[in-house]
């Protein structure tokens, strides 16, 4: 099993990365559509998982 040392990205960083509003990312989280992990009170994301999510076409459903 390969372990990657990819850092976690914030909601703000993911919104900027995807070119969408932070509220859009929050809506995707509520729909349990976007791959996200809640750590304490903060939502965190792996950009590699976000890239796969976009490539899969799931982001286009919204």
Automatic annotation (TrEMBL):
Tell me which domain of life the UniProt entry assigns to the organism this sequence originates from: Bacteria
* One Pfam family matching this protein: HTH_17
GO MF terms, alphabetically ordered:
DNA binding
Q: State the InterPro entries in the record.
A: DNA-bd_dom_put_sf, HTH_17, SinI_DNA-bd, WH-like_DNA-bd_sf
Q: Where is the Helix-turn-helix domain positioned along the sequence?
A: 10-56
**Name of this protein:** Helix-turn-helix domain-containing protein
Which organism does this record belong to? Paenibacillus mellifer
């Amino acid at each position: 099993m390969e372990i990657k040392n990819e850092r976690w990205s914030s909601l703000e960083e993911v919104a900027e990365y995807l070119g969408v509003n932070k509220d859009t990312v929050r809506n995707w989280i509520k729909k349990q559509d976007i791959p996200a992990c809640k750590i304490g009170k903060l939502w965190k994301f792996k950009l590699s998982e976000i890239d796969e999510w976009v490539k899969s076409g799931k982001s286009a459903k919204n």
